[in-house]
Amino acid sequence: MVQKYQSPIRVYKQPFELVMEAYERRFPTCHLIPMFVDSEVLGETEREDGSIHQVQRRCKLDVDAPRLLKRIAGVDYVYFSQENTLNKRERTLHIESHNETFSNRVIIHELCSYSAHPENEDWTCFEQSASLDIKSFFGFESTVEKMAMKQYASSIKKGKEIIEFYLNQLEEEGISHVPRWTPSLDASSSSVTTKPVCATPKLLQLEQPVTPAVSIPVSTDANDHEIANAINNDATQSDATSNDATNQPDDQTENQTGTPDDKLDADYIKRYLGDLTPLQESCLIRLRQWLQESHKGKTLTLTPSSPPFQIPKDEHILRFLRARDFNMEKAREILCQSLTWRKQNQVDYLLETWTSPQVLNDYYTGGWHHHDKEGRPLYILRLGQMDTKGLVRALGEESLLRHVLSINEEGLRRCEENTKVFGRPISCWTCLVDLEGLNMRHLWRPGIKALLRIIEVVEANYPETLGRLLILRAPRVFPVLWTLVSPFIDENTRKKFLIYAGNDYQGPGGLLDYIDKEVIPDFLGGECMCEVPEGGLVPKSLYRTAEELENEDISLWTETIYQSASVFKGAPHELVIEIIDASSVITWDFDVCKGDVVFHLYHSKRAPQTPRKDPLVGQHSSITTPGGNNVQLIDKSWTLGLDYSMVESPLTCKEGESVQGSHVTRWPGFYILQWKFHTMPGSASTNLPRVDDVLASLQVSSHKCKVMYYTEVIGSEDFRGSMTSLESSHSGFSQLSHATSTSNHSQSSSMISR
After folding, report:
1. Hey, how many other C-beta atoms are within 10 angstroms of the C-beta on 36?
2. pTM assigned to the model
3. What does the angle CA 370 – CA 374 – CA 375 come to, to the nearest 5 degrees?
4. Which residues have C-beta within 8 Å of that of residue 232, sequence separation ≥ 6?
5. Which residues form the CRAL-TRIO domain (predicted)?
6. Strand, coil or helix: 131
């Protein structure tokens, strides 16, 4: 399997020319890199005006490997070829290197780039990427891979230190300025001077493309330049042809939504996301880039009510990576599932749309209360005082679930605020649970069922948000409750639990170790008034009947504008839309949640038969999605081309993808949207799947597919956007596009295109 690495942007606060002077001091050898034994120049060329200088080197490395492995391999040293192109006019240095030793068994390829800071010409940016592909190595493939990744991560960490060492050395020698290159008046730019050092030098092409600079905001505060230095997430958008950059206003520097050309800065990562190892940084950047690539073409909105597309914030992506120990494939899988869930249930709008029923305001004994000693938001839950049975009987499970989701969404918002206030990354919160009053009535089975549902949803969609859980005054009945719920809690989360019986929380190692004395609630012996409701029994007059609760749960689900459907082998799902006026616009937005489907659009002058549901389909019982259905409209006796016709080319859609499109109708009649089962073809083995192959590795053999869709018919006079210039958007994470009650994110075209 190919291992890849992508660095963030690292910034040197010295001019490009001075950094280049320091860089050259690394050769022919560097005492700061013990394994870098020597290097020799194989070939060198320079334009007569001196604007472009190219050097090819052969580097000799003494790799730190077990002596036995070296003997088996039959080598003492490893050789690499390095090709450098210094463009003094553009102020860039491009470095490309690959291994010569064992090149038929191991392929190592590295690209590095130094460039002048796009907004501060006296600073220099550095970025690198690399790949490692071990095809075979005498049966030690796994060992060599681990050893190589470990040594490479170590060398990355020391890279900036080495340049800074030579910069300090230059300063000690009194060299603080290196003049910039200026064109010579009498030099011909087409002339090239070749300095052969060996008989057959292999030289780079002179005209090598230069990567356009990425706009990186510069902090105006000299004491806080690490905070705003090169913050990539200010929605910087580069133009591929003009290399112009447009920056967001300064007050948006905290917004970590990005565009495909955004890049992360190392100082930004440290300031807002925490200390990450080089390989962890690489995982974040690569997953982030994959999300950006998946959403190209989804930034256009067709109506004023359609919000612009946004990818998840960096903190959110990082939480899923941490939850899976930075395993890219596993993190991408759970992130995909969570984002689908967020879109279907419109969780992104929960804080704006959800209003807690008065019963919750009066009897739900939980609320936010200041912060702990580490700056984490503190949530207090007086579970022992809560009438769980009464709340479930009065509200139903779905209302409780939505309330808990709103608490988690508020927690994410508070983490962002505290990150700004305390000047350090805060990505999780502390929860204090007071169990005084907990007894057997809390073990009421429907209440436990509701609790387990909530735990399951929160665990799946809010990983690594709980920093610490303090359980106080645990009674004797607590072990029974813990036995019921602990299997549903992730092992890493369970390690964050601290349980105190009786008044143990008042002693050494207790509450004062985690919460300042000034904010300890009054009901725990502190002096701070806590606004968390005291709870009590919910009056039975507020109880709802089972039928009322069931209808309430259904109405909650129908708030989403999306519908779910199941697609089986031999049983497509079909939807009919009757068009009265020609030149109307049919728009659609659908996600392929499971399996692969083929999407068709047909037209018929005849009304299709009465919808019939496939008998194979039962009701979906998931706690997070409404029931799916399967409806077939096209009569089997109908003949394509006679009774109905195809008006759009078939579009194959793979699991995890989203499709937004539209069709301008030419005739009145009945238009049938069809989702048909499609067998997934085998895909080539690659390290990072193409966007078209997203989630292919996760797909299991099944004869059932599932889609989530929304359609709308718009009059041509109301349709916003050019009918000829806009294309249908087809991406791998539709979960992120925002749904509204009036329009979707579809883009207009009479032909669907990828």
Report:
1. 20
2. 0.65
3. 40
4. 9, 214, 216, 258, 262, 263, 264, 265, 268
5. 356-532
6. strand
